[in-house]
Hints:
- This protein is α+β, with helices and mostly antiparallel strands.
- The chain is built from 3 helices and 3 strands; from the N terminus they run βαββαα.
- 19% of the residues lie in helices and 44% in strands.
- The relative contact order is 0.27.
Amino acid sequence: MEGEEKGMTRQHTFFCVNKERHTSASKVIEAQPKEITIFGQKVQGWIVTTEEPVIDKIIDLDESTQGEVLHHDPE
């Protein structure tokens, strides 16, 4: 099927304060300590880049908008 992303990966970059919690199930590409200011307070954390596999199941439109799939979809 054309356009299918099976076997590919995507990188996600995010800020977090608990690196171990947010990277335990991911392949970490890079993690750097970072201090940011939120509402005037300095917060110590990490800028993390992870790599995760792309979902390899193609979901039909009917399946994604009707039926019980919506009850099992965590997003």
